[in-house]
Amino acid sequence: MSEKIPGLVSKAESILATCGTDQDLINEAIDLYSEALKLSASTKNPFSIDFAGIYYGYGDALLRDVENDQLLSSGMNTTGSMMPIASNKPLSDDIQNTEQAKAAHIDLDVIVDEDSSISEEEEEEDSAPIQKTKRLDSEKEIDNDPSNEADDVENLELAWEALETARDILSDSLDTQLKDKEKGSLIDAPQIISNLQLYVKVYLRLGDCGLAQSQKEQAVEDYTKAMNLLTLYKPELSREVSSCHLNIAEALEGDVNRAMPHYEASLRIILLEIAKLKEKRGESGVITQDEKNLVNLKEDIELQILEFKKDGNVLGGTSKTVIGFKKGDSSDSTPITTLQPRKKRKSDV
User: Fold this and answer.
1) pLDDT tens, 268-302?
2) What is the CATH number of the domain that holds 193?
3) For the whole prediction, is pTM greater than 0.90?
4) Which residue would you say has higher pLDDT here, 103 or 222?
5) Does 230 reside within a domain?
6) Domain that holds residue 17
7) How many domains does the chain have?
8) Where along the chain is composition biased (Acidic residues) (predicted)?
């Protein structure tokens, strides 16, 4: 592996961990991963397990770019109607913090010199709203630019290709590694668990790609594979599994009878987690932010289930099981290809 690659990847990962929806930082991360992939192409085995994380990171960053554009064009404050626990998407708090930081930056831009007169300060204050309005108008022009839509389509395709490449690399490696490992015996195999964790993240983002392209059945399949891989090293009643159920339910929007079991499964896990937190705090009575978030999520899911039942969209009874996934189903005949660097959008120039 080139000596430069770890540094590029480390910097990109650090940026994505804190960037929220900052477009410039997301673009910087994309460029860093792109450079890392160019360097990996000159190695002896550019599709070794060592590079799976780079393909995942590149695909994740590209997908964030697309999701960010969709978020801006829709005027939404979050990436979805409900935020799953330990979501694979940027948290709403990250978005709010980023917007606050941008607002602070705008305020600094319009600060007048201390030596200015009062009348000059008033004039500056009066012009500030106009400046901000012009800035917003220019942002709208960028959002409505047809070339940006074309860029999003191209970046989404590149993201999908990168994530599928990461999936194929991990599939080839894990199929071999898991042959002699029974479920529940992975505690002594940290490298396998690390690869499985990456594998889960890859399938979660592939599911997000499916949703972005309105391929809901493909999204359901990918989210389900992520959930079943997750249970190889996590308890079936863990929060991460609850999050997967919510992802599947969201992908099944419009198919109430298939979505309902996933909402109910997620709710059962959340209720158990809330009970654990209540027991843990005991007589102190101090409710943590974690517990508050779980209670809010519980109420959201309960409301969704109630609305389904009120509308009469649920047939008698609900399923006890969800779509299954057998080990080995993850691979397909999709060939691994060398990725080309994305094209720059106009706003990058």
Assistant:
1) 999 999 999 999 887 777 889 999 999 999 999 99
2) 1.25.40
3) no
4) 222
5) yes
6) 4-91+145-327
7) 1
8) 115-127, 144-153
